[in-house]
Amino acid sequence: MKEECAVKNERKRWMIINDVLAHLALPAVIACLLGAGPAFGAHPLLTDDTGTQGTGKTQVELSGRFDRYGESGARTEGWEAKAVLTYGLLDLLDLGLEVPYTWVSAKDGETVRQDGFADLLVALKWRFFEQGGLSLALKPLVTLPTGDAEKGQGGGRTSCGVNLISTVAKDLCDFHLNLGVTHNDYKLEADRTANRNDIWNVSAAAEYKLAKSWRLVADIGAERNANAGSNNLPAFVLGGVIWSVSETLDIDAGVKWGLNGPETDLSVLAGVTFRF
Fold it and tell me: What pTM value is reported for the model?
């Protein structure tokens, strides 16, 4: 009887969560992410894992990223500061909120600088399968148009997408695979003409337990080019390290390289993660 009651209570909580998200998303028209890549991976990884926080537990991730692409004289540089809050609604279900702030500096004859909040991202992660070392999770995403579309910091409309996540856990290594799709829409006519609406993404990552408190991480991924005039797939590779100072504190750093022209040439990432 106790087990049946617990199952019923979890179902009720799930229905309430769905109703809340539906009321948040419906007032906005569907869809636009700045990018279709994975979200909320263990920083500096972009590829997500199937891990969840557990009922009532919270994780706060504060991170920064520097991007650079283009040649000298026509170079674009960008900075992003991001806060990610993740809360365990149930043992197998997390609710996440991502708040990014960006600075962009472009130089092409003259220097132009823009800064402001980008679009706000809300996500659920549900780990629905776990057997042995293999686990699977589903992650629906909703992006709210809080960024300024005129500055290129958002699409001006709400976006939605979903990622399928798998993790294989071994003694010394963990392996992660993400497959996702996002449906984009744009407020500005120029953006609607220049960009594709539906973007798929795929990425894979590995974590190697170097010592009790140290992990080496690697990531590789690609996605459909959002530029309607190009079929070249933006692709990247990333390497980094995570230092677990304690069970409640991680410090990390990483470097991401673009493998081809459409991808950002170089990104340097650093972050700190708190759990309580």
Answer: 0.82
